[in-house]
């Protein structure tokens, strides 16, 4: 019955909403200079920057619909409500996970124009600068991929709306020099240039402040400054603080420039494969090796619309894969690029042998500790109390304040030295070093080059562990229930929760097609907890979160632990509940080919002349941060490289 109130709430919004597609269908044109596959975080960014040049034509092909006008998309406090985790979610299923007791888990990813940026939690910090520097080290010390080289692209992708005096009084901190240009309210349309509006929520729960103290971490001057480890703070959000609405990649990079005549966006258009220049085709018996001269050339793409109509679009210059870290490798495999054995067993004719497509996949891992609380306001009340829900809705509409004005997270980045006693840490790290080859081989699926690549990744990460710069874990506080139990199955009470997110995963897995049906989901094996350091670290972080809930001053609102629960070992609980943090990376890694990479440092797929990958797939290993801002940075940098290369050709 209590749900009914929320449904009424949605309906009242939805009646004002508009569901019909407003985006122009592609006109009677079937050749474009650039084709962007996937209109998400990366895809709309690249499309915007390339279409700044009126002389080139750009089309974005997006499998999902345009949903910018759904309240659960634009109202910050409705993160996770409504259709976010149903129709707007690919909800990829993993294969049974050996180290999670054979459980399958779900990996969420946005299925809509804007991709994951329309359903994500809008947390927008950056990782440790040393980790970005390691991307360069991994790529023959390429100085184009270091913190200093990428910082201008982080800045270019955002317009900050600086905190107000009342936000500062509530504990918000920011360093102006870490950010892009501040939004200038005196300019008519500053958003015209295409940037993510970033800012802070209008409502900070009092218990978040208490948690900052309980965490024992230092207040962060700014969680985007490349030095978040050991700090705690209220995260900057991908949020237009002027009107307190989510700023997805649609808001940032499409809507402001939707009137460009050279930019077309097709929604409900699923790309099924890349079509190759016929003169370059090879036989199934002898797919060319990517090391050979005469690279493949993409001629266009095939797509299916939601009513089943198949259509072909041709490309004059380049195709960009921006379908996310699971769908981008899938499209390459459906197009005959990948491990020939895997392709043939799925019924796909190999065209180019590039055997690490879909390998090296990694994810952040989510876990929880939560307790019943006597705090007067928690997010749970939106579902438990219809009067509260109505009051909050009115508040949001009247002055953009209240619980609905905030996606409620504040973050703390925990150092390894705070998780383990120093002697234990030395032993654990020594064991990881001793076994470095063993695990690199195990995770490489028999590919010798990739084994070398994973070994180097692990070595770089373990160096950071030894220097105590790995930022292996994020602990973030949620003023409400966060955990593995559904609303229907848990006590109807108020909660205080700590999310424990394993950032520094050494485990690697893979995603591959198992059928030639382009609409079938791939077989995804993230290999959660396959490396013992991952498991040990995650267990310690859940224990730490659990302890924080009982630490002063948070102890004053603590009533009783709900999960893991007093009679449950954290080890077994972790295996029972650990879940994806929906930050999949690495499946088309930017690494040298002799280390098992799929794209070079200009993001070109090895052995293909005109296909680049511009999304989260290229991130070579998991970083100590939520990845959305990093994906914008990659796409901004990719657009610059594409323009530069075009000017030379
Ligand atoms: C629930 C959730 C919460 C998250 N919270 C945060 C957060 O708070 N902060 C943060 O930094 N990160 C967060 N993330 C992660 C982050 O949003 C994503 O990792 C990132 O946006 C991925 O960007 P991308 O461009 O690689 O892919 P996406 O943004 O997912 O874009 C891929 C697009 O391609 C489309 N597509 C897929 N297949 C096809 C096809 N065959 N043809 C055409 N189109 C196709 C998809 O529909 C999608 O629109 C979250 C993710 C999720 C799912």
Automatic annotation (TrEMBL):
<dbReference type="GO" id="GO:0033718">
    <property type="term" value="F:pyranose dehydrogenase (acceptor) activity"/>
</dbReference>
<protein>
    <recommendedName>
        <fullName>pyranose dehydrogenase (acceptor)</fullName>
        <ecNumber>1.1.99.29</ecNumber>
    </recommendedName>
</protein>
<comment type="similarity">
    <text>Belongs to the GMC oxidoreductase family.</text>
</comment>
<dbReference type="GO" id="GO:0050660">
    <property type="term" value="F:flavin adenine dinucleotide binding"/>
</dbReference>
<dbReference type="Pfam" id="PF05199">
    <property type="entry name" value="GMC_oxred_C"/>
</dbReference>
<keyword id="KW-0325">Glycoprotein</keyword>
<comment type="subunit">
    <text>Monomer.</text>
</comment>
<dbReference type="InterPro" id="IPR036188">
    <property type="entry name" value="FAD/NAD-bd_sf"/>
</dbReference>
<keyword id="KW-0732">Signal</keyword>
<keyword id="KW-0274">FAD</keyword>
<feature type="active site" description="Proton acceptor">
    <location>
        <position position="626"/>
    </location>
</feature>
<comment type="function">
    <text>Catalyzes the single-oxidation or sequential double oxidation reaction of carbohydrates primarily at carbon-2 and/or carbon-3 with the concomitant reduction of the flavin. Accepts only a narrow range of electron acceptors such as substituted benzoquinones and complexed metal ions and reacts extremely slowly with O(2) as acceptor.</text>
</comment>
<dbReference type="InterPro" id="IPR012132">
    <property type="entry name" value="GMC_OxRdtase"/>
</dbReference>
<keyword id="KW-0285">Flavoprotein</keyword>
<dbReference type="Pfam" id="PF00732">
    <property type="entry name" value="GMC_oxred_N"/>
</dbReference>
<feature type="binding site">
    <location>
        <position position="271"/>
    </location>
    <ligand>
        <name>FAD</name>
    </ligand>
</feature>
<dbReference type="InterPro" id="IPR007867">
    <property type="entry name" value="GMC_OxRtase_C"/>
</dbReference>
<feature type="active site" description="Proton donor">
    <location>
        <position position="583"/>
    </location>
</feature>
<keyword id="KW-0560">Oxidoreductase</keyword>
<dbReference type="GO" id="GO:0005576">
    <property type="term" value="C:extracellular region"/>
</dbReference>
<keyword id="KW-0964">Secreted</keyword>
<dbReference type="InterPro" id="IPR000172">
    <property type="entry name" value="GMC_OxRdtase_N"/>
</dbReference>
<feature type="domain" description="Glucose-methanol-choline oxidoreductase N-terminal">
    <location>
        <begin position="110"/>
        <end position="133"/>
    </location>
</feature>
<feature type="domain" description="Glucose-methanol-choline oxidoreductase N-terminal">
    <location>
        <begin position="324"/>
        <end position="338"/>
    </location>
</feature>
């Amino acid at each position: 019955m209590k749900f009914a109130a929320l449904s009424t709430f949605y309906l009242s919004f939805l009646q004002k909403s508009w569901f019909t597609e407003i985006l122009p269908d592609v006109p009677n044109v079937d050749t474009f200079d650039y084709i962007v596959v996937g209109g998400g975080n990366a895809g709309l960014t690249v499309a915007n920057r390339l279409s700044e040049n009126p002389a080139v034509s750009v089309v974005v092909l997006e499998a999902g619909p345009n949903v910018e006008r759904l309240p659960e998309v634009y109202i910050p406090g409705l993160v996770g409500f409504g259709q976010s985790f149903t129709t707007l979610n690919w909800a990829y299923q993993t294969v049974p996970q050996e180290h999670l007791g054979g459980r399958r888990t779900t990996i969420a990813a946005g299925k809509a124009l804007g991709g994951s940026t329309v359903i994500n939690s809008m947390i927008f910090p950056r990782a440790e600068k040393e980790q970005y520097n390691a991307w360069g080290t991994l790529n023959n010390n390429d100085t184009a991929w270091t913190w200093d080289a990428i910082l201008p692209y982080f800045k270019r992708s955002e317009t900050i709306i600086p905190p107000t005096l009342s936000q500062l009084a509530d504990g918000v901190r920011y360093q102006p020099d870490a950010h892009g240009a501040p939004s200038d309210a005196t300019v008519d349309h500053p958003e015209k240039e295409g940037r993510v509006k970033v800012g802070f929520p209008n409502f900070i729960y009092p218990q978040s402040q208490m948690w900052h103290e309980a965490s024992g971490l230092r207040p962060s001057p700014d969680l985007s400054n490349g030095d978040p480890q050991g700090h705690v703070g209220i995260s900057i959000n991908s949020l237009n603080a002027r009107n307190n609405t989510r700023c997805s990649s649609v808001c940032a990079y499409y809507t402001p420039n939707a009137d460009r005549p050279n930019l077309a966006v097709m929604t409900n258009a699923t790309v099924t494969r890349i079509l190759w220049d016929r003169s370059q085709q090879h036989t199934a018996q002898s797919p060319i090796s990517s090391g050979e001269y005469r690279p493949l050339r993409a001629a266009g793409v095939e797509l299916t619309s939601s009513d089943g109509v198949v259509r072909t679009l041709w490309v004059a210059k380049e195709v960009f894969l921006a379908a996310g870290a699971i769908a981008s490798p899938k499209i390459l495999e459906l197009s005959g690029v990948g491990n020939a054995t895997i392709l043939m067993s799925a019924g796909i004719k190999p065209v180019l042998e590039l055997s690490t497509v879909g390998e090296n996949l990694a994810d952040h891992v989510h876990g929880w500790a939560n307790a019943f609380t006597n705090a007067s306001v928690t997010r749970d009340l939106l579902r438990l109390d219809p009067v509260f829900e109505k009051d909050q809705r009115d508040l949001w509409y009247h002055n953009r304040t209240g619980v609905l004005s905030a996606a409620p997270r504040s973050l703390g980045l925990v150092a390894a030295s705070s998780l383990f006693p120093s002697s234990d840490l030395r032993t654990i790290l020594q064991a990881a070093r001793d076994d470095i080859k063993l695990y690199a081989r195990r995770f490489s699926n028999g590919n010798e080059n990739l084994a070398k690549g994973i070994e180097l990744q692990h070595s770089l990460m373990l160096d950071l562990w030894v220097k105590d710069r790995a930022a292996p874990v994020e602990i973030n506080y949620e003023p409400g229930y966060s955990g593995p139990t559904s609303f229907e199955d848990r006590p109807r009470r108020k909660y205080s929760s700590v999310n424990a997110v394993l950032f520094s995963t050494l485990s690697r897995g893979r995603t591959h097609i198992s059928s030639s049906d382009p609409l079938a989901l791939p077989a995804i094996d993230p290999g959660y907890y396959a490396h013992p350091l991952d498991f040990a670290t995650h267990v310690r972080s859940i224990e730490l979160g659990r302890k924080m809930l009982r630490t002063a001053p948070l102890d004053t609102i603590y009533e009783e632990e709900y999960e893991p629960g007093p009679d449950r070992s954290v080890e077994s609980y972790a295996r029972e509940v650990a879940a994806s943090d929906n930050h999949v990376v690495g499946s088309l890694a930017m690494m040298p080919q002799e280390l098992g990479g799929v794209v070079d440092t200009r993001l070109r797929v090895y052995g293909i002349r005109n296909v680049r990958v511009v999304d989260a797939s290229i991130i070579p290993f998991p970083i100590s941060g939520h990845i959305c801002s990093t994906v914008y940075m990659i796409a901004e940098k990719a657009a610059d490289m594409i323009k530069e290369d075009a000017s030379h050709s």
